[in-house]
Amino acid sequence: MPIDLGLQRISLLLLKLGNPQLSWKTVHVAGTNGKGSVVAYLSLVLTSSSYKTGRFTSPHLIRKADCVCLNNVPVLDQTFALAERRVLSVNEVEKIGATEFEILTATAFEIFHSARVQFAVIEVGLGGRLDATNVIPGANGGLGVVATGVTKIGLDHEGILGNTIGEIACEKAGIAKQNIPMVVDATNEVEALASITRVAGTHKAPITKSVPDLSTVTAFGDLSNLRSPLLGEYQLANLMVALNILQVILPVAPQITPQLVIAGVESVQWPGRLQKLTLYYRQNTPGLPLLLDGAHNGQSAVELSRYLAKNREEGLTFVIAITRGKSLAPLLSNLLQPQDKVVVTLFGPVDGMPWIACMSPAELRLEVCRYVAPERVFVCENQVAALDKARELHRGVVVCGSLYLVGDLLRAHERVRSTNDDASSGLKDEKT
């Protein structure tokens, strides 16, 4: 079933499952860009503070079960499948007609309930107000949502969320709960901040405007030397949203200490976002050093381009695939320069998201040629051929345009490394 936002089906599905979502304290995070890393910071600090913590993010990167973590470890495929079967059964018996994302959300909540998590850090899937994750009520002294966060807002999914920054921000801020504190990234555009502030006000939600300055969070002592392992200048803004959320939830999470905040932040990892990797994509072939980034809209392309600015003199090789229906100009115009070369490719079907399709390479090539001369643009529908071509071009390689493409390549990397490890183990066995 394609995207169909609304809370009626998920509410009924969860009711028939016994309302598992009412069993823990929740931190709920929305935004166009940055919400995943904010969720990662939060869940690591909570886990470091000895709280049993669930984490729900989407889409998955390598395996469908990656969406659901317990204490920052993805659940086993068997654990995920068991919970999913129960959810699917209830959906079928009760004739609810839940969407794939609603099934996924309910599956995550079932797993959290069975694991008896104390906190769940939950990333919005799409928008906020009508997203399936927005079914958990405000805690108001008990279990439920104890804080909400809104990261950077940009133009994305305009056909669903609205055509202006203000309209999209209203949808994202729709996760606000009555009297529950909200933290918003203050580096947002004025129009976005105005919309978020207005929505928070209607819920009497105390709002903290988070600025990218470590000295503004005082609950954890001197954090001036704190550094995130995640690359990119924008990560300071994301980190500050997380730190401000941790500060406002201290009354309900008193085990958090300055030392544990530092330990959690400094151990964070977020694959597929400015990730440097030597990628192994075929057996008996040397790895290809490259940068993986899920940049898929104008705002994320700007941040990626800023990161790449130091190495642009001789041009870069981009390996790109983009989801059908995406606005291309904001992404490509901010990313590509005339001296670059581009290899256009495809990503494969996305597990659990049958409505997602890749733009045809021929169509994407036409758009890319608006920014890069046609003789510098290559079409390779096969990902292995695309990477071979990128290697042949002898320059820095950047893979971007879609997290689905990044996920495909990380799966291939995992497969090849696993096979190589098995072969290496076999050779060792033969020698002993």
Automatic annotation (TrEMBL):
PROSITE patterns: FOLYLPOLYGLU_SYNT_1, FOLYLPOLYGLU_SYNT_2
GO BP term, pick one: one-carbon metabolic process
Catalysed reactions, as listed in the record: 7,8-dihydropteroate + L-glutamate + ATP = 7,8-dihydrofolate + ADP + phosphate + H(+)
Keyword vocabulary terms for this entry: ATP-binding, Ligase, Magnesium, Metal-binding, Nucleotide-binding, One-carbon metabolism
One term of GO molecular function: metal ion binding
Keyword Magnesium attributed: yes
EC number(s) on file: 6.3.2.12
Gene3D superfamilies: Mur ligase, C-terminal domain, Mur-like, catalytic domain
UniProt pathway annotation: Cofactor biosynthesis; tetrahydrofolylpolyglutamate biosynthesis
GO CC terms: cytosol; mitochondrion
Family annotation (PANTHER family): DIHYDROFOLATE SYNTHETASE-RELATED, FOLYLPOLYGLUTAMATE SYNTHASE-RELATED
Family per similarity comment: Belongs to the folylpolyglutamate synthase family.
UniProt-recorded name of the protein: Dihydrofolate synthetase
